[in-house]
Design brief:
- The complex is a heterodimer.
- Chain A has 17 helices and 3 strands.
- Chain A is an all-alpha fold.
- A two-stranded antiparallel sheet of chain A has the order 1-2.
- The relative contact order of chain A is 0.11.
- Chain B is α+β, with helices and mostly antiparallel strands.
- Chain B has 2 domains: 41 residues; 108 residues, Rieske [2Fe-2S] iron-sulphur domain (Rieske Iron-sulfur Protein), CATH 2.102.10.10.
- Chain B is 23% helix and 35% strand.
- Chain B is built from 1 helix and 11 strands.
- Chain B has a 4-stranded antiparallel sheet, with no helix packed on it. Chain B has a 4-stranded antiparallel sheet with strand order 5-6-7-8, with no helix packed on it.
- In chain B, strand 2 and strand 3 form a beta hairpin.
- The longest helix of chain B is centred in the first third of the chain and has 42 residues.
- The relative contact order of chain B is 0.13.
- The chains are: A mainly alpha, B alpha+beta.
- At the A-B interface, helix 2, helix 3, helix 4, strand 2 and helix 9 of A face helix 1, strand 1 and strand 3 of B.
- Strand 3 of chain A pairs parallel with strand 3 of chain B, so a sheet runs across the interface.
- The complex binds FE2/S2 (inorganic) cluster.
- FE2/S2 (inorganic) cluster (FES) binds next to loops of chain B.
């Protein structure tokens, strides 16, 4: 089998323009390897995901490199798959006996986008959280099935830790299996049909085996990809902003490969938004799927298929144009551009700051000789008064409080019951959920603070 | 279309015997280049993943710390008591506060603190009528922590302690298991 693979005949001889398929296979392997490595530390839970990614990025040796390879590798896959499809389209290589190869290729483009969409959420930083929130809302606008589909994606009505879990499951279990099956089918069909060869093969009857010259070209291309991705990862570390804060007013933008859709949304307000979100992508992929069955002429030369070539040129130019336009508009808008600058600044600052482990479990530090504060104190009071009751800007220190006038244990109990009527200058928030027992425990503990 | 199906080398040139051998040489040279590139990428990845997974695992763990084991007045005279405490462990991405425990015996002013981790294979040691016993493989110790039976390789591990504000502070540590000497991990 190895031999058969090496001896695979290539009509018209080895060419640089044939390297993209192998390049994609290489990127898939690289994503799989780096992805498995990242999963050694990654935790798919909303309360630890960000800390675990920050740990990988900042503290683990070679972590920034591996995460960067995975991050930039994802974008490279989207680019390369589009180049590969465009080339096959341009060379008419989807024709005669190769229809299914094309169809599996288009499905793989969809899966790659699904990989990108689910992977984007996993770091659980601001951009990930708000980007995904917008993305899933767009999916929810589809008539009839939209809301159900959105809920199934989110695992509920909101973007929560359950969303993260199912995105993770899809990203590391479902999609890889689907992609693997498709790749095997794709390559099997490709081998059976044979390489399409150059579109002008009438004049070129050479046949050359895959090994060594085509294989060398493929290998050089893979090396170039690997070096480029590694350089990017080391020079511009993959983004990681502060942990997602659902209460903040973060200004979200989708990753670049979803920008064309995002830009189109601006032109179709209200009910019309179905055009860019559903109709246009639907029509595009339907056309891609049907292409080899609709276009049955044998002609393959791009210049003798002006309509097909024209459509391709227009859609590529349109896509690039929409991305550029969206970037431009964000930059031209004073308010947005300052916001983005602030957000990028925060992101950079977080990435540069030293890694701080997340505090897990008991948050309250014990005071020697006094012991740990009751849990109820930790949950209700420590936010303002500190873990050891040492006080902070927002609230006074409680150390030695029972020695102060009007602060006997009985007074403290009354304050806990109703701080407003007791006459504190700046009353504590009134919404404590403390049982009588818990109040007594807190006061008992406060008595010991000296 | 009628393609030639010959699949070795470039088939559009007729191969003279001496030319064929240079083609073979050229093929094997290109083979070496291909092998070099692929193993180079493989080695770079293997090195990165090796460091990524192995280095943090070999780093020193930081379990050693002084922890509060409660008020001295709560410790009865003469019989072993188990004191629960919070152990802080920095592991990977988190600083984990986890429950831990030690055995404390007070004889008047003299206080001894034992690690509750069995020196044999790490089960939790229980108090018994004659001192201590490990339920896993029946290792036993007397009230002073001296080995009296079972597979344990050594006496119970003592921990340093000091008194502050009437509270017992213990220097929590982990020791290697299964060896005769008391050695910190
Ligand atoms: S672990 Fe305690 S006796 Fe074996």
């Amino acid at each position: 089998m190895m031999r058969a693979a090496l001896e695979e005949p290539i009509r018209g001889g080895a060419r640089w323009s044939y390297v993209f398929g192998s390049g994609l296979a290489f990127l898939v392997a690289l994503q799989a390897i780096t992805g498995i490595a990242l999963s050694v530390y990654y935790v798919p839970s909303s309360d630890h995901a960000h800390a675990s990614v920050a740990f990988i990025q900042k503290a683990v040796p070679a972590g920034a490199l591996l995460r960067g390879l995975h991050h930039y590798g994802a974008s490279a896959m989207v680019v390369l798959i589009v180049v590969h499809l465009a080339q096959v389209f341009l060379f008419g290589a989807y024709k005669t006996k190769r229809e299914l190869i094309w169809v599996t290729g288009v499905v793989m483009l969809l899966i790659t986008l699904a990989f990108a969409f689910t992977g984007y959420l996993l770091p659980w930083d601001q951009a990930a959280y708000f980007g995904t929130k917008v993305g899933t809302s767009v999916a929810g606008e589809i008539p009839i099935i939209g809301e159900i589909q959105r809920r199934i994606m989110l695992g509920g009505s909101e973007l929560t830790t359950l969303t993260l879990s199912r995105f993770f499951t899809a990203h590391v279990f479902l999609f890889p299996v689907a992609l693997l099956l498709l790749i095997v089918t794709h390559i099997f069909l490709f081998r059976r049909a044979g390489a399409a060869g150059p579109f002008h093969h009438r004049e070129d009857h050479r046949v050359e085996s895959f090994y060594p010259r085509q294989m060398l070209k493929d290998a050089v291309f893979m090396l170039a990809l690997f070096v480029a991705l590694a350089a990017l990862a080391l020079k511009w570390p993959a983004d990681l902003g502060p942990q997602a804060d659902p209460s903040s007013d973060y200004l979200a933008r989708p990753p670049w490969y979803f920008l064309p859709l995002f830009q189109l949304l601006k032109y179709f307000p209200g009910q019309l938004s179905l055009i860019p979100t559903v109709l246009l992508p639907g029509a595009l992929f339907a056309a891609l799927f049907l292409l080899p069955f609709a276009d049955r002429r044998a002609e393959r030369h791009p210049f003798r298929r002006p309509i097909a070539t024209g459509i391709l040129a227009l859609s590529l130019a349109g896509t690039v144009g929409l991305i550029a336009l969206s970037k431009y508009e964000d930059r031209a808008n004073k308010e947005f551009s300052t916001r983005f600058k602030e957000q990028e600044e925060a992101s950079r600052a977080f990435l540069k700051s030293k890694f701080e482990p997340q505090v897990i479990g008991q948050v309250l530090a014990a005071t020697p000789g006094v012991g740990v504060a009751p849990t109820s104190f930790g949950e209700n009071c420590a936010v303002c008064h500190g873990d050891r009751g040492e006080g902070a800007d927002s609230a006074p220190s409680l150390i030695g409080i029972t020695n102060k006038p009007n602060r006997t244990p009985e007074d403290l109990l009354k304050i806990l019951n109703d701080s407003r009527t007791y006459g504190l200058k700046e009353p504590m928030p009134a919404s404590f959920d403390l049982s009588e027992d818990e109040k007594r425990q807190i006061v008992e503990w406060l008595k010991k603070l000296k | 279309m009628n393609f030639e199906t010959k699949t070795s080398g470039i088939s559009d040139t007729p191969e003279a015997p001496d030319k064929a051998s240079t083609t073979v040489e050229r093929r094997s040279f290109l083979g070496v280049v291909i092998g070099g590139i692929t193993s180079g990428i493989g080695a770079a990845l293997a090195l990165a993943i090796g460091r990524f997974t192995v280095e943090p695992a070999l780093a020193d763990s930081k379990t050693e710390q002084w922890v509060d084991a409660g008020q001295l007045t709560d410790i009865p005279e003469g019989k072993p008591v188990k004191r629960a405490m919070t152990i802080v462990q920095e592991v990977g991405w988190g600083r984990f506060h986890e429950p831990g425990s030690v055995w404390v015996i007070r004889n008047g002013e003299a206080i001894t603190v034992f690690s509750a981790v069995c020196p044999h294979l790490g089960c939790s040691v229980n108090a018994s009528a004659k001192g201590f016993i490990c339920p896993c493989h029946q290792s036993s110790w007397d009230g002073a922590g001296a080995k009296t039976g079972g597979p344990t390789p050594r006496n119970m591990d003592t921990l340093e302690h000091r008194i502050e504000n009437g509270a017992l502070l213990v220097r929590y540590q982990s020791f290697k298991q299964g060896i005769a000497e008391k050695e910190t991990v």
